[in-house]
């Protein structure tokens, strides 16, 4: 049963509370009249399963089930087609869920229709006066949206929203909106309905009264939400309505839930996040409860400043069209243009936060004479953008880098974009030169080709076309809904329809056994060829899997043989144990071999590998041929006939699935293999019996075969169909070639070649051919390679294939070529949905040759991107064999000066550089230009980015100031505690700083340079975050008690450091101070220290109180007096023991987290333990003489040993307290009264001549140094000693040349070695890393760590840093390539390229 809940919002009155429990009966009609010309609008839900149409003239709303729903299918997951998907050729969407009509006055439900209701078409001859449009019809516009189906306790709910927009009030700039700031939160009305099949009584009179009300009343704006509940027996309908807000409706669903929860590999969208209304004033947010039966306007969000300026200045008369072009599903696109660069900022309306920023650089020599509204679409991973004129760009959402671009000359104006076929293709809708709409499908990853067709023009395209998640529907003038994709498919089928001859099995087959190199018969090699086509066939290759030890089964097919005179050209397909290869040979005995392609020897054209793990490859898991079919040539290729080769093999089921089984881990590998082989034999025998059963038809046989395969316990069967297009289509062949490099190298590293010269030579020959195939594609199709790399991660295969020279060419091109280089690779951390970055044996390349001397990591290291994989893959090798790491670091850092997104992979991989001791690479990386010259990539002015509190200050003496960029849309929601927290955190603090900066300061503001730390997500950890909670007074009070009384524990253990942020992991692994002499590193520390310092300040305060308590109690004991009140003394004792317990627990937690080596590696940790333990011991002994009546008044004689204990305790406490200012104390004590320190007397002597009298004088100059003057010796006066100590920390002590005292030289030497500022930063960084792992206590919902950290500093500081490192700005890999142990190799064209079946323009 379907229930209808109309949720509409109207002004409250006293009667609302009395009437809200009353239900209104609504009759279900089976027929009705159409009084106005139909005017339809359509909307589709985010997951594409349902749609809604709205006849704006007759106010009829119809909900439909999308019978042509196309879900997103993830890779490597078995897919099942939903039952409701349209498998026919019909493009009509007819299945109605609900049908009803709303009232024109208040948008309430007027009547229901039966689901099979078909409204009559409008009759132009009608004399009904209501059919005439009035002025209100032009004043108002409509907006429509529908939510995904929501599931709550077995009840499915759909929400439909409709808004009647007053254009003058809500889509134009008005001057009276400031006085109505909070009016939108006023006015709610409630009404309940019951659906009834009984006609209402006195219906005529009710209609008359209703018309009277309508005539008296006047149409007004408003928004209504209608709720539909499926499979429920409750007929009650609750409704709300709001007359204060109207605008563009948008239901926002949470995609993160859909990606984590899927059925049969299909995303499930069932989490409604919010409902929004967007108009000129801002974004209004509606909140729902868990049952979606109540809604409330909770807050209003402001637009980004740039779009607000655009609305105010350019679209003040009507912004609706511009606003619609900015919205796609849950995304809001903001564009800005500055200095020939257009910035694209994509905001996610789920969390009202900036998700990515991309840049589009325009050619300065070309000016666009036309302007259309921007059009964009967002897939799971990519952003597609166009200005509406022919040219389309694809950007990667994770980092904002451009992936691809293409010019479509067949389209003059682009209206719409949509990713279809699980984001594998892009549909472009636009206007071509011919009449009608042009539909172009760009096959992004399979062929790269474009197909197009033309359909009749659609009037009012924005309203009559709905698109989302790869689903596109259209409603026509009569209300019929059709699937646009189905229409396009049908048109393309008709357009490309040809009578393709059916493939047939080879009938005139000739089968013979091959021969070995010695000419002996080879019983393991079977060769097939069609005798009608080839009278005789001679094999050109014998075996091409040199890693297979011993004999193994092989099958070959003749794909092509052409003999013209003495010249013979042959293509042979050979199927081995784990590969399918095609070899090509051109022979001519009458020609010189040097003139023949590849000197007349066979060369590799194509290779496919099944990528079975090395330890699973054996005879039982070999490739088996299920079917081979071929057909005559259709003319599409001059050499290859069409063929289908279907092979299958067996692999072990996923390790995780098997490990969970009881006793599996205890079994030996050989026992597991034996069990798997037995199961394979059983499956093969059963399938043979089924195939030989003549009484069973083919359908039953196939079903039975699948049941046997699915019921397998230990193994799984995998299949591959190879067609001619896999060889001739370069997109397919290059994918297989890249994966083959990885497959071959794993077998080489596993020592299957047994270091045999012949086998190694054959292996290297195959690898050389494969690399050449890839190189040709990279050279001739760089843009296609980059696009395919984004989809299939070619770079990973090149890394695992140890193809260092091919990687260098891909990243940098040929250094001998003097031409503009094209980008062929971008970094990425986010994977294609359903894709796994690592396979079972990707990290096992060194498990055979380094098994005995491998070191196990204390933490689980699992690379998540190519940079991390390269570092992990090359760990422990000779430096020359790690050059891949240098190539990638240089490539990413070199391009990062333009966009920080280039360092997205480096950011997470930096910790591994230090963990695996790539010190030289790390040092060169942190000297790269991008760390000081990474300009902010927003088109906003710096004044809009730098916080106002920083702009108000002079910033004369700063080095760097880091801050969080404003990425969230501003809300008018304000909690009561915000004012208090902001007062202490920001306003009060900055006012104090500003006061002291302005005091007696005549300098103006310094020129500043705004920069971005070029390490995205560098401070974001993987530690589980707290859920959003409501901080009321009670929770805040208990949090205060928790901070005061309970020691902080750690959220992670020592073996879970991989959950920390890359920054903290880097700090834990690094072993030098070079990284701290870097503007970006200092900015990160500056940013993180703002929060961490408060925690450590409270720790210091506790220790200070602890020390004061001990000193006061010891003083009372030593004086044998009752000067300190005994009650106060007792309170001090209680506080002392509590603080001792608190600090001791804190130290034990640190010891457990850091481990003994790292904990005692810092000497002051030892002082911490000694100071606490010794003080508690001494205090416990003193308390034996304590009495509640007089304290220590009864002590007659003080214990000498106890006095010594008190002295040492105070000494250690003093060391702890003055640790931070000890340099000042040491120097001040040593040099404040240097009467007994000898002064170095410096004198200069020479001759001076008087040119007038021609007289010569002997001159002697001596320096006068007063050690008691603060001008000569600043350490004689404490205030100047503080300033001088700062320079001494950096090793800059001019006074060392004046004092002849060994202590001064020794202390100065120590200071020089400590590199004061770097030491300070390192000390802070270690505290930050420690703080990150602790449980945090907050008083409001804590903002997550930003993806990008901004900072500003004085321009001269950054310029000086860069100039000091100019000599070390060369390529990271240069110094290592120049070593004699490294061999440079260059790729070049081969003699057989022109004869290859791969042809490039």
Automatic annotation (TrEMBL):
Coiled coil: 666-700
Transmembrane domains' residue ranges: 1095-1117, 1129-1151, 1163-1182, 1202-1222
Keywords for this protein: Coiled coil, Membrane, Transmembrane, Transmembrane helix
Tree of life domain: Eukaryota
Name by which UniProt lists this protein: Ion transport domain-containing protein
Biological source species: Rhizophagus clarus
Taxonomy of the source species: Eukaryota, Fungi, Fungi incertae sedis, Mucoromycota, Glomeromycotina
């Amino acid at each position: 049963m379907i229930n209808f809940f109309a949720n509409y919002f109207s002004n409250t009155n006293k009667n609302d509370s009395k009437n809200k429990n009353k239900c209104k009966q609504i009759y279900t009609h089976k027929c009705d009249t159409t009084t106005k010309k139909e005017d339809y609008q359509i909307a589709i839900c985010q997951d594409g399963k349902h749609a809604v149409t709205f006849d704006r003239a007759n106010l009829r709303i119809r909900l439909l089930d999308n019978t042509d729903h196309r879900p997103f299918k993830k890779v490597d997951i078995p897919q099942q087609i939903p039952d409701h998907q349209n498998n026919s050729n019909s493009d009509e969407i007819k299945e109605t869920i609900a049908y009803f009509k709303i009232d024109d006055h208040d948008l309430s439900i007027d009547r229901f229709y039966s689901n099979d209701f078909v409204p009559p078409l409008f009759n132009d001859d009608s004399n009904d006066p209501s059919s005439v449009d009035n002025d209100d019809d032009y004043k108002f516009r409509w907006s429509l949206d529908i939510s995904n189906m929501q599931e709550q306790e077995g009840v499915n709910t759909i929400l439909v929203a409709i808004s009647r927009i007053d254009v003058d009030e809500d889509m134009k700039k008005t001057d009276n909106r400031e006085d109505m700031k909070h009016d939108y939160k006023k006015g709610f009305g409630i009404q309940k309905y019951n659906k009834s099949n009984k006609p209402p009584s006195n219906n005529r009179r009710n209609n008359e009264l209703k018309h009277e009300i309508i005539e008296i009343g006047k149409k007004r704006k408003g928004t209504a939400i209608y709720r539909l509940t499926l499979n429920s027996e409750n007929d009650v309908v609750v409704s709300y309505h709001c007359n204060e807000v109207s605008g563009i409706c948008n239901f926002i669903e949470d995609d993160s839930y859909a990606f984590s929860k899927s059925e049969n590999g299909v995303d499930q969208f069932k989490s409604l996040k919010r409902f929004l209304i967007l108009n000129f004033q801002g974004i209004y947010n509606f909140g729902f409860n868990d049952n979606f039966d109540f809604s409330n306007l909770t807050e209003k969000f402001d637009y980004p400043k740039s779009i607000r300026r655009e609305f105010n200045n350019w679209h003040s008369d009507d912004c609706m069209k511009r606003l619609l072009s900015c919205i796609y599903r849950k995304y809001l696109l903001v564009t800005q243009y500055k200095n020939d660069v257009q910035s694209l900022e994509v905001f996610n309306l789920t969390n009202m936060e900036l998700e990515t920023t991309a840049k589009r650089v325009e050619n300065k020599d070309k000016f666009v004479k036309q302007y259309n509204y921007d059009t964009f679409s967002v897939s799971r991973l990519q952003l597609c953008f166009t200005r509406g004129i022919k040219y389309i760009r694809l950007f990667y959402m994770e980092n904002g880098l451009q992936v691809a671009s293409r010019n479509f000359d067949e389209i003059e104006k682009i209206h719409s974009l949509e990713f279809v076929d699980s984001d594998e293709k892009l549909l472009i809708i636009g206007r071509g030169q011919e009449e009608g709409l042009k539909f172009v499908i760009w096959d992004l990853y399979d062929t790269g080709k474009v197909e197009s067709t033309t359909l009749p023009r659609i009037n009012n395209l924005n309203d009559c076309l709905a698109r989302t998640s790869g689903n596109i529907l259209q409603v026509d003038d009569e209300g019929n809904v059709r699937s646009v994709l189905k229409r396009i498919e049908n048109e393309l089928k008709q357009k490309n329809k040809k009578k393709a001859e059916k493939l047939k099995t080879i009938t005139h087959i000739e089968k013979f056994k091959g021969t070995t190199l010695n000419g002996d018969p080879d019983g393991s090699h079977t060769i097939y060829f069609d005798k009608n086509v080839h009278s005789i066939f001679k094999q050109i290759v014998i075996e091409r899997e040199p890693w297979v030890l011993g004999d193994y089964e092989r099958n070959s097919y003749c794909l092509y043989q052409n003999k013209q005179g003495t010249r013979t050209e042959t293509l042979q397909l050979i199927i081995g144990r784990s590969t399918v290869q095609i070899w090509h040979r051109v022979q001519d005995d009458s020609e010189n071999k040097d003139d023949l392609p590849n000197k007349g020897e066979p060369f590799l054209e194509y290779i496919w590998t099944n990528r079975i793990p090395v330890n699973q490859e054996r005879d039982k898991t070999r490739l088996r041929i299920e079917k081979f079919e071929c057909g005559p040539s259709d003319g599409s290729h001059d050499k290859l006939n069409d063929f289908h080769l279907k092979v299958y093999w067996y692999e072990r089921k996923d390790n995780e699935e098997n490990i969970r089984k009881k006793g599996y881990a205890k079994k030996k590998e050989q026992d597991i293999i034996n069990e798997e082989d037995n199961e394979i034999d059983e499956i093969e025998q059963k399938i043979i019996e089924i195939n030989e059963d003549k009484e069973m038809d083919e359908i039953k046989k196939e079903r039975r075969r699948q049941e046997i395969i699915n019921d397998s316990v230990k193994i799984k069967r995998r299949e591959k169909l190879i067609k001619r297009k896999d060889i001739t289509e370069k997109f397919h062949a290059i994918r297989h070639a890249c994966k083959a490099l990885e497959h071959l190298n794993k077998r080489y590293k596993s020592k299957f070649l047994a270091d045999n010269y012949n086998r190694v030579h054959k292996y290297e020959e195959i690898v050389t051919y494969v690399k050449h195939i890839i190189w040709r594609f990279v050279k001739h199709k760089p843009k296609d390679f980059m696009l395919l790399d984004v989809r299939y991660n070619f770079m990973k295969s090149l890394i695992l294939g140890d193809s260092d020279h091919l990687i260098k060419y891909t990243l940098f091109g040929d250094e001998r070529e003097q031409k503009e280089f094209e980008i062929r690779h971008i970094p990425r951390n986010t994977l294609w949905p359903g894709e796994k970055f690592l396979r079972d044996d990707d990290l096992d390349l060194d498990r055979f040759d380094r098994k005995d001397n491998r070191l196990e990591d204390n933490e689980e290291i699992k690379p998540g991107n190519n940079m991390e994989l390269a570092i992990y893959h090359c760990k422990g090798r000779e430096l020359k064999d790690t050059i891949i790491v240098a190539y990638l670091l240089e490539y990413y850092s070199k391009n990062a000066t333009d966009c920080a997104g280039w360092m997205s992979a480096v950011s997470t991989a930096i910790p591994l550089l230090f963990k695996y001791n790539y010190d030289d690479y790390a040092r060169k990386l942190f000297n790269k230009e991008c760390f000081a010259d990474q300009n902010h990539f927003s088109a906003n002015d710096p004044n809009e980015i730098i916080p106002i509190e920083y702009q108000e200050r002079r910033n004369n003496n700063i080095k760097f100031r880091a801050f969080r960029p404003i990425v969230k849309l501003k809300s008018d929601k304000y909690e009561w505690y915000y004012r208090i927290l902001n007062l202490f955190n920001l306003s009060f603090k900055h006012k104090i700083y500003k006061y002291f900066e302005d005091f007696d300061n005549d300098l103006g503001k310094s020129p500043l340079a705004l920069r971005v730390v070029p390490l995205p997500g560098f401070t974001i950890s993987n530690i589980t975050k707290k859920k959003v909670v409501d901080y009321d007074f009670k929770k805040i009070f208990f949090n205060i008690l928790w901070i005061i009384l309970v020691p902080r524990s750690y959220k992670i253990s020592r073996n879970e450091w991989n959950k920390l942020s890359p920054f903290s992991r880097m700090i834990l692994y690094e072993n030098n101070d070079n990284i701290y002499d870097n503007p970006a590193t200092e900015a990160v520390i500056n940013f993180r220290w703002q929060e961490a310092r408060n925690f450590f300040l409270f720790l210091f305060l506790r220790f200070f109180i602890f020390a004061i308590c001990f000193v006061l109690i010891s003083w009372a004991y030593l004086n044998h007096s009752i000067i300190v009140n005994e009650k106060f003394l007792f309170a001090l004792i209680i506080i002392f023991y509590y603080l001792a317990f608190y600090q001791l627990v804190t130290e034990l937690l640190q010891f457990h987290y850091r481990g003994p080596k790292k904990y005692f590696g810092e000497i002051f940790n030892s002082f911490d333990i000694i100071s606490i333990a010794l003080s508690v011991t001494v205090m416990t002994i003193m308390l034996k003489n304590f009495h509640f009546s007089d304290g220590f008044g009864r002590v007659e004689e003080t214990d000498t040993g106890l006095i010594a204990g008190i002295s040492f305790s105070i000494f250690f406490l003093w060391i702890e307290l003055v640790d931070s200012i000890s340099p000042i104390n040491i120097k001040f004590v040593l040099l404040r009264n240097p009467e007994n320190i000898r002064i170095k007397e410096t004198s200069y002597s020479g001759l001076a001549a008087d040119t007038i009298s021609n007289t010569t004088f002997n001159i002697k100059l001596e320096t006068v140094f007063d050690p008691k003057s603060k001008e000569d010796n600043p350490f004689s006066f404490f205030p100047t000693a503080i300033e001088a100590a700062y320079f001494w920390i950096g090793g800059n002590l001019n006074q060392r040349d004046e004092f002849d005292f060994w202590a001064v030289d020794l202390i100065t030497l120590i200071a020089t070695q400590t590199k004061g500022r770097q030491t300070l930063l390192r000390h802070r960084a270690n505290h930050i890393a420690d703080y990150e792992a602790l449980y945090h206590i907050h008083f409001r919902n804590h903002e997550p760590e930003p993806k990008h950290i901004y900072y500003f500093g004085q321009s001269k500081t950054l310029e000086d840093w860069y100039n000091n490192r100019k000599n070390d700005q060369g390529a990271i890999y240069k110094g290592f390539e120049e070593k004699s142990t490294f061999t440079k190799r260059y790729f070049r064209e081969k003699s057989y390229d022109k004869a290859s079946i791969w042809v490039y323009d």
